[in-house]
Fold this sequence. Notes:
This protein has helices spanning 39-50, 69-74, 87-93, 119-124, 126-144, 149-159, 161-164, 168-174, 188-200, 210-217, 220-229; strands at 2-3, 6-8, 10-15, 30-33, 60-63, 80-84, 97-102, 115-116, 181-183, 242-244, 247-250. The chain is of the alpha+beta class. The strands form 4 sheets. The chain has a 5-stranded mixed beta sheet with strand order 5-4-6-3-7, sandwiched between helices. Strand 4, helix 1 (39-50) and strand 5 (60-63) form a beta-alpha-beta unit. The radius of gyration is 18 Å and the shape is globular.
Amino acid sequence: MLRRPAPTGGVLIKAKGSDIKLPQDLKGKNVGVHSPLMVNSFLFNTLLVRYNLDPAKDLNIRIINMNELIPALERGEIDAFINPEPLATLSEMKGAGEVMLLSKNLWFKHPCCLVAMKKDFFESETNLAKAIYASTMESGLALNNAQTRSQAIEKVHAESEAYKKVPLEGLKRAFIQGRSDFDPFVYASSGKAVLIMMRNFNMLPASVDIDAMVADACLSDLSREILTAVGGDPPAENSRTEKIVSEIVAS
């Protein structure tokens, strides 16, 4: 069972002073991603294809631990990387990188992070599962609210061992409204678009029933129910037009 909050905060960073200006300039370059299964990686591959580049042949996409992306950029081992914030902002603060593009400009309000639960856990511990999910929605609403975002980031910084390692100034800069947003509603159409991209890049069999997978995993009706209960204002429909790198992929 998957429920999908949608923080849009991915950034394609290039080495500072690089001659990379346009997507086609990535030909022959080394680009880091921390996982081939992250949505930002699918978006990057889709961008390349739109510019007639083969992700497997025309450049070297390297899988690099998230903690090593900035050092690899600093050492000149990669020319660029794509990753969710705050790594992009940290690379700018260190003088190592500069923004080439934001992932939201490839796919507006795209999904990124997941709340995933085993189906048997969800069915046997439904109240607990819903409470966990509700807490993530409340967090998303607090982070998306201009009046509470700063305090919410301060709370994350104080209580998260991982984010304590990032300067508070950097977190606030990385998660500024408009650059990183947190829409917690689950659109079934977004799940469908992700699966279509996975199939396009041979990560799913061509025979897979995408509609059945989406119906089983992306629980839009539950998302609406819980989002309403915690004070959110969910859309009336489970689907929307999903335009990715200027082309409609799902609806």
